[in-house]
Amino acid sequence: MALRAIAGKKTLTLGLGFGPSGAAAAASFPGLGSGLHARGLVTFSLPDLPYDYGALEPAISGEIMQLHHQKHHQTYITNYNKALEQLEEAMTKGDSSKVVHLQSAIKFNGGGHINHSIFWQNLKPANEGGGEPPHGSLGWAIDTDFGSLEALVKTMNAEGTALQGSGWVWLALDREVKKLKVETTANQDPLVTKGANLVPLLGIDVWEHAYYLQYKNVRPDYLKNIWKVMNWKYASGVYEKEVA
């Protein structure tokens, strides 16, 4: 699962009773019943990028990638860990009001960490295969559900351009019906907020911090060029695992 892949290196041995991935899920979207007490805490750390900051140029500048990764993603992680620590303390004290109050911060910052961890994997330098179209089962699924790759890209670009304010546009697999869907989420809401059956294959960050230094306020140009460094191999791997 994606949550297991993005868990940080530091895990406190208090445990929530169902292992690291379960702890991460519970921390992200805590459904707290009467008498539930935290016995542990998982903290998260900034994942390394699988490429240099400048490797995605000219589609995405090295300056943007460095700021996006080191400043923005790190801030989400810092605030996520802080909120989780406060949550653990509130649960230990039985402070239900504090637990409820913290959920918006956990959703926003935890979602920021989850979304960006996926986003980095969705990108790949053009000289290493970034932008090469999908083949195999995912390619067939795109043709079946959207008509063509070009039609899918057009749909995602249109949805991303039309999204008001900040958010994300996703290519998702509905694992229940085995069909592909395009979804958008506001702010840092992770895709799971649109349904637990949705698996993110590709996510495009349309917050201004993802493109403004290079593209100013012309979001459509950013969306047009990001496909030149899209890592379809990653998306195909996730898809094949889910439909197997």
TrEMBL record:
Where is this protein found?
Mitochondrion matrix
Q: Which residues form the Manganese/iron superoxide dismutase C-terminal domain?
A: 135-235
Catalytic reaction equation(s)? 2 superoxide + 2 H(+) = H2O2 + O2
Q: What is its EC number?
A: 1.15.1.1
What keyword terms does UniProt attach to this protein? Manganese, Metal-binding, Mitochondrion, Oxidoreductase
Query: Domain Manganese/iron superoxide dismutase N-terminal: where?
Result: 43-123
Keyword Metal-binding among UniProt keywords: yes
* Positions of Mn(2+) binding: H68, H116, D205, H209
Does this UniProt record's set of keywords contain Iron-sulfur? no
Q: Name one GO cellular component term.
A: mitochondrial matrix
Q: Give a single Pfam family match.
A: Sod_Fe_N
Tell me the cofactors it needs. Mn(2+)
Question: Cross-referenced SUPFAM superfamilies, in alphabetical order?
Answer: Fe,Mn superoxide dismutase (SOD), C-terminal domain, Fe,Mn superoxide dismutase (SOD), N-terminal domain
What's its top-level EC category? Answer: oxidoreductase
The highest taxon in the source lineage is Eukaryota
Its Gene Ontology molecular function terms?
manganese ion binding; superoxide dismutase activity
Q: How does it assemble?
A: Homotetramer.
Describe its function. Destroys radicals which are normally produced within the cells and which are toxic to biological systems.
Regarding protein family, the annotation reads:
Belongs to the iron/manganese superoxide dismutase family.
Q: What is this protein called?
A: Superoxide dismutase
Protein species of origin: Phoenix dactylifera
